[in-house]
Specification:
The protein is of the alpha+beta class. The protein is built from 3 helices and 6 strands, in the order αββααββββ. The N terminus is likely disordered.
Length: 97
């Protein structure tokens, strides 16, 4: 269920940028074999951090694809993670204001 919610958020709520939205860019990168599917990224993140995903964005930063994942921890804190879209490795973890 968590994965379906995150995918729905990725597909429906990500803002458009420069004429191409994040969903389309993520799909194209996945089809080219440049990134892991979101479900695999979320599975890797779930092994490291406990929380409920509330938003996912797909970004390209200086030649690197990144999933920005916002979640709520069991104690109610908002947390933003940046995960490498190729390896699933968490690049950063910070409280969300």
């Amino acid at each position: 269920m968590l994965r379906l919610l995150a995918l729905a958020l990725l597909l429906c709520s990500v803002p458009a940028r420069a004429g191409t939205d994040d969903t389309q860019r993520a799909r194209e990168a996945l089809e080219r074999g440049e990134v892991l599917p979101l479900r695999e990224i979320l599975a890797l993140v779930e092994q490291q951090v406990t929380g409920r995903v509330i938003e996912v964005e797909f970004e390209q930063e200086v030649g690197q694809y990144v999933y920005e994942i916002e979640l709520i921890t069991p104690d109610g804190r908002l947390l933003e993670l940046r995960a490498d879209a190729v390896s699933g490795r968490i690049l950063s973890e910070a409280p969300e204001d």
